[in-house]
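#structure-requests
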Amino acid sequence: MTKAGHPHFSDPCHGFLPGGQFVVQPTGTGTLDGLRFAVKDLIDIAGYRTGGGNPDWLAASRPAERHAIIVSQLLNAGGQLIGKTVTDELAFSLEGVNAHYGTPVNPRNSAWLPGGSSSGSAVVTAAGLVDFAVGTDTGGSVRVPAAFCGIFGFRPSHGALSMQGVLPFAPGYDTPGWFSRDAQTLRAVGHALFPAGKGRPITRIRLVEDGLDHVAPDVARDIRHGAAAITTHAPVRLFENMSLDLFQQVYAVVQGFEIGQALGERIATIRPKFDASIEQRFAGALTLREDDYRAACETRRTIAAHIAALCPPDTALILPVVSQRHLNTNADPDLIAAFYAKTLGLTAVAGHAGAPQAQMGLPANVQGVGLSLLGARNADLPLLDLAVRLSMQAGGFDGC
């Protein structure tokens, strides 16, 4: 690793960790030449400690001996790393709030939460401080902040990219993901990370019509308006025989049990001081039983087969990833709970299927929520190609 000092460039949105600005120079050349990026504080950088958004966790950690594999790949493709970004504590939130380091400011509207848990990575991208940023996505932690901040975000197929050097949360759903302000950069990162290969082109775009039954009316209007311009085939109904509540409940059990397996022992050892809401979530997760987990995994396999039947490799489904356009920074607990109840069911679709999903960005002067496109498992590059084609048809995107 080559360090080029510790710069202190302006960070008006507070997306970088305190003291988290540094430079790691590229180790090669490729599709990311000249591009700067940042990574979420769940991802190892050689010589730096990974704190997971919690000071006690940070204090108990040792400096990483090597970069996470995804970081090495990006550096080798010509990217320049310029720091680490704020995350919700150990990734256990979709809001973007961090009680210890502060909540990053959504550049789109400072009265709105940025979304989490990859909040800092989304914010520094939306603010133009980096060309792209890496986060992680388990239950929507890239897709939700991308939607709230009006930028592009990509959750790849589960298992398509290495999680080595990334702090685990719920390994059956965990994957790295990334943000950008334009579709071309989103795809360029994908070409740096995925093995070469074209894959089957996506030629059919269909709206998940009953997905709109579970979002606020203004979000439904946003999605219908955008979908009208790009759909090629009749809509589908995903939740008729398997309810959104089932998607959410199965996700909650599988995620919760796996959190206990991945983090429970270390939490008991470190005993980190969490924000009250985060502590309550961990307490609930650590009580889940293996029998319930096994039953939920069986149901998950049935759900995955159902999704795959509706979304073959030549198809992309339009499915929202947020139930509301935004959450205000002063949103009350009941509103946040309602947001979680719907949104986690929507984001769980890609998680259950292990499928890729691309959140499309919006121009700065456009209100609302951008379209989100779900692809078939391992159709990552074709889905990124589709995002570029659709962005070009819409006249491009110049950032927040």
